[in-house]
């Protein structure tokens, strides 16, 4: 493909996947709007769909690369701190698994112990699993996250939410 005397190579698989996501998001949004245009039903779905479409629009330019770009431009440096990496040791992999289990436990306990207790316990557990040991941070940050989440959801949605304290 040529644009202004520059030859570009298109990553068709990447572009096709992004277009598939755009079509899926658009059809889902149109279906939701067809079923109901009530504010309560579209309060979270519609802004999320627009954000996802905007992210897709930001990703599309990455599907086009200049053909005359050096071949080693895509190679990641070994000492690059921003390079993506998978968990290397058993300890890191166990941390990922335990975080996933903690998230699942939080989701299943939302209606049992209440949103406020479940969110704060998950936040404390996640911070402890990730290495936070300062008691002040383990108390203040989960409290702030819990207050923001509970009162934010109450302000957004008129549905009843099970809480234990708040």
| Portion in beta strands | 5-15%
String of helices and strands: EEHHHEHHH
Radius of gyration, in Å, reads: 22 Å
Oligomeric state of the chains present here? single chain
Ends apart, CA distance between termini: 59 Å
What share of the residues lie within helices? 55-70%
Task: Name the shape in a single word.
Answer: flat
**Tally of individual helices:** 6
> Into how many domains do the coordinates divide?
2
Number of strands: 3
Largest sheet: 3 strands, antiparallel
> Unreliable runs, pLDDT <50, ≥5 residues?
none
**Main sheet: which strands, in order across?**
1-2-3
Structural class: mainly alpha
Whole-number mean pLDDT: 86
What structural keywords apply?
166 residues; 3-stranded antiparallel sheet; mainly alpha; 2 domains; 6 helices
Task: Please give a structural write-up.
With 166 residues, the chain is mostly helical. It folds into two domains: 2-74; 90-156, no CATH class. Helices cover 63% and strands 6% of the residues. The protein has helices at residues 12-35, 39-42, 45-59, 90-113, 115-129, 135-156, and strands spanning 2-3, 6-10, 64-66. It has a three-stranded antiparallel beta sheet, with no helix packed on it. β1 (2-3) and β2 form a beta hairpin. The longest helix has 24 residues, at 12-35. The protein is flat, with a radius of gyration of 22 Å. The mean pLDDT is 86.
């Amino acid at each position: 493909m040529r644009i202004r005397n520059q030859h570009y190579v298109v990553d068709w698989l990447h572009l096709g996947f992004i277009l598939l996501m755009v079509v899926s998001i658009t059809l889902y949004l149109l279906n939701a709007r067809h079923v109901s245009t009530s504010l309560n039903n579209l309060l979270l779905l519609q802004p999320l769909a627009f954000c996802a479409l905007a992210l897709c629009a930001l990703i599309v330019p990455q599907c086009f690369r200049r053909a005359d770009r050096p071949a080693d431009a895509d190679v990641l440096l070994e000492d690059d701190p921003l390079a993506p990496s998978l968990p290397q040791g058993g300890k890191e992999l166990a941390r990922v698994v335990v975080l996933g289990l903690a998230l699942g436990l939080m989701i299943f306990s939302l209606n049992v112990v209440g949103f406020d207790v479940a969110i704060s316990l998950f936040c404390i557990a996640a911070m402890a699993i990730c290495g936070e040991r300062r008691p002040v941070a383990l108390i203040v940050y989960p409290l702030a996250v819990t207050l923001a989440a509970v009162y934010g959801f109450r302000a957004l949605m008129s549905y009843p939410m099970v809480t234990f304290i708040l």
